[in-house]
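Task: encode each sequence below as structure tokens.

Item 1
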Amino acid sequence: MVVESYVVVHNIAKRHNVGTLARSASALGVSELILVGRRDFNSFGSHGSTSHLLFRHFHSLLDARHFLKEKDCDICGVEITDNAVAVNQHPFKRSTAFLLGNEGTGLSVKECEICDFFVYIPQYGGGTASLNVTVAASIVLHHFGVWAGFSERIRDGNKFVVAERPAQQMRRNYCTETADSIIEERKIRRQNASNGFFDESGSGESPSNLLDALFGD
């Protein structure tokens, strides 16, 4: 059985966290980073790792859930809930997609509804109530990789060897652009305009916008 991991990004508040999250995902064997809602994001902190990571886009959480279930994939919410299991207990059974919540409010009710189970990261110090979302993702993904038996990347000196950068990022039509989907995306843009996650400058020329490079028209 081939076991894979995915990361689902829906409502992270800080734009630069997606770039840093992509760096951790590429280092820890994630198969795809799934964006739900808007497709553009800030690549700051990725250190070029976005060229080594596959991206997929859906307009809604239900669409993303349908795709993952077709791949026989569990959806794991990273959140402290009454029934959450400590991640170091490795409560995994198969390929798993990890859904991380907003830094300030955690997972929403709608996000929790698509999750099959939840994990949390035990803390041993009392200086903070929670971890940065990218730190939390790195810890959870590392535990999953240990459980899944992912092969360790080869090293050269005190660094891991970086794979050859693809000559060209393949353009993929992961999401059909219908009139209804465009209206929905504009609606999401307005709803998220105040949370600081997306670039709302209106210029459409931001160098941090990876939309054209990663997705088809």
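Item 2
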Amino acid sequence: MSLIPSFFGGRRSNIFDPFSLDVWDPFEGFPIANVPSSARETSAFANARIDWKETPQAHIFKVDVPGIKKEEVKVEVEEGRVLQISGERSKEQEEKNDQWHRMERSSGKFLRRFRLPENVKMGEIKAAMENGVLTVTVPKEEEKKPDVKAIDISG
């Protein structure tokens, strides 16, 4: 497997990850002028940043969701061991007398899906949110070690 450095953000990502159901967009991060504003609003927050690490005990997903309440985020497991994390950050209401000088915070929906490996305990998945970071812990089943039985040698 080859790790490719990201040009935007200094992170390394594995674009050949067999468990990821994400579609790689080579134009992600580039400003596109001809996209209608409604599409920009929907997709502005579409790619919530996720780290996925595997420890001997579990798979751990950390999702940056600043400014989103836990009630606005869903963590679901679909048939076929697919972990789905979704949510929405609503656009701030504009008052008639307000004058905006800058509006950089993204709003919109996000949806990320990952196919989990076979060695996970599907019924024991836990999620917690703290300081704008959602942590999803997917415990792994204990690795079965082959039984080795010593055989006495006669003679």
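Check on item 2: The longest helix spans residues 37-43. The longest strand covers residues 82-89.
End of task.
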